[in-house]
Fold this sequence. Notes:
Elements lengths: L4 E3 L1 H9 L2 H16 L9 E5 L2 E12 L6 E9 L11 E9 L5 E6 L1 H19 L8 E5 L3 H12 L6 E5 L3 H15 L3 E3 L3 H5 L3 E4 L17 E4 L7 H5 L2 E4 L2 H4 L5 H9 L5 E4 H5 L11 E4 L4 H18 L3 E2 L11
Parallel strand pairs: 1-6, 7-8, 7-10, 8-9, 10-11, 11-14, 12-13, 12-14
Antiparallel strand pairs: 1-15, 2-3, 3-4, 4-5, 5-6
Helix pairs in contact: 1-3, 1-11, 2-3, 2-11, 3-4, 3-11, 4-5
Organism: Streptomyces cinerochromogenes
Pfam families: OCD_Mu_crystall
InterPro entries: NAD(P)-bd_dom_sf, ODC_Mu_crystall, ODC_N, SbnB
Amino acid sequence: MFNFDIVAGGTVREILRIRRHEVLDLVGRTYRLHEAGRTVNPDSCFLRFPEKPDSRIIALPAFLGPESGVAGIKWIASFPKNTESGTPRASAVLILNDYATGYPVACLEAAAISSARTAASAAVAASALRPEGHRGKTIAVVGAGVIARTICDYLHAADCVPETYLVHDLHEPSGQALAEHLRTTQRLPVSFTTDLAEALAADTVVFATTALQPYVTTPFRPGQLVLHISLRDLAPDVVLGAQNILDDVDHCLKADTSPHLAEQATGSRDFVTGTLAGVLNGDVTLDAGRPVVFSPFGLGVLDLAVGAFVLEQARQDGTAVAIPDFFGETRRW
């Protein structure tokens, strides 16, 4: 009851690296579990800083349901200026709690968990929203950070393999680094472009930027798939011109995301086509004559599911670090 484990970042990364297919399956199942109302996913809480308007630390509490017995919270910082010194933008920890007693049972380094669950959700969407596959297509990646790299790794694991990749980033060294990563890991033709319009014309467009305000005003064409992972890239008219798939409607329509701005502009949610779980369950039908945009706000239940999976593997592998006497008092009297 009073055991407490630490799972370090290197351990987390290695577990996730060799188990991407299991993570993909887990994320798909968790989306369905959430859609069925068997999870609790409260609003995220944003800690902002007046002197650093681009930075924030977010708390994502969640509960996977009585069957799992897992509750917890992810505490994740996003400080974009870190990248200027070569430091990753995001850092995070995940605390897991036992449902029976409420006691915390583990702390995991969670930047890798967060990027993996984000990337897996993008790959699950890429498979479900382009069921005919990506062979012969071009995938463009706008933004070339850790999230973008991880998304590409999970797209490959999900067999969303295009004919070629196109990479665009305002910071060319980052874009070139992602392009080289793709050449090395996927053995596919990859080009870097400084022309955003060229990237936006690709068959599938992945947004993984740190944009705070929309900058894409050109509508997408029928047949295009947009994985709008960074959430604030698209102007409201672009959103309104597409079929919109969200991870959770109430969760996504807040915090001035592009879908939230579209709701504010129209006073309606009629532009929302459905959820990804609805697509996975066969409850949502898409129109091939219109573009599709997937906008996931990011659900804490996904972090919990992936984190609990990592903890289980680390305990089995003997790589979780037990902290003796973590709790200072274990008896009331």
